[in-house]
Design goal:
Blueprint (H helix, E strand, L loop, with lengths): L4 E3 H9 L1 H9 L8 H23 L5 H19 L5 H6 L1 H23 L5 E10 L7 E10 L4 E7 L7 H4 L1 H14 L6 E7 L5 E7 L3 H20 L34
Parallel strand pairs: 1-3, 4-5
Antiparallel strand pairs: 2-3, 3-4, 5-6
Helix pairs in contact: 1-2, 3-4, 3-6, 4-6
Amino acid sequence: MGKPKLHKSQLAMFSRCPRQYMYRYVENIILPPATAMLAGTGVHASAAQDLTAKRDTGKLLSLSQVTEMAAATVKAEWEKTGVMLDTGEILVGEKQVRGETVDTAVALAKLHHKELAPGLEPRHIERPFTVELNGFPVDMSGRLDLQETNGTLRDLKTRSASPPAGLADSSLDLTFYGMAAKALDGQAPPILALDCLVKTKIPKLVTQTTTRSDVAYRALLLRIEAVSTAIESGSFPPCDPENWCCAAKCCGYFTICPFGAAARTTG
């Protein structure tokens, strides 16, 4: 079966909270996605279809095709996996929240189609990869959102607020994907782009570009080595309770974690 594969999402989760990683990947407690994740799934599916059409035919899909794909994907995933509603969403009601989630996906898919897609020259779209790491207990695995004909590697994100300045420079995702592309293609991407579709009242596109040096890629290998060693040893300490992710609205395991809700009971 080969070595275990470490996905970027696993690496990010362990870095965020090892205890959360333990619940998800060791104890295999799989939770439904949050509504924001489902909206993002719809946007990614729509964008991939739109850019595939452009690469293969020279033309983007129609706006109606793009928005229909986003809406249909959200609805299908909602039925397949269910959804994890937060306290506020429960009060609003699942039916209304579902409609709002579809509307968000449609609005952001429309934004991508109108403002970002026309200027892109796609070469590889949703490119799956596995990169063997000789001497490591794990290999890298994942999927590259988009590689353009000029070598630029792009990562598409949906966000509820504008990204902070310099986010692309520190992005673990871009480092991970950049190193994978270097291994696949024999050279590092000359530009790494973080495309953020922001869910403001009037949706907006924010793009940040950056690069990575070999020093950054060596640091990533050290991180992978440290994380895989900790996983093998069964060491899953909790994150700092002041960390943004250690909250009920951000972590589905908060109520069962002894360092989460139980540790904050007063009286």
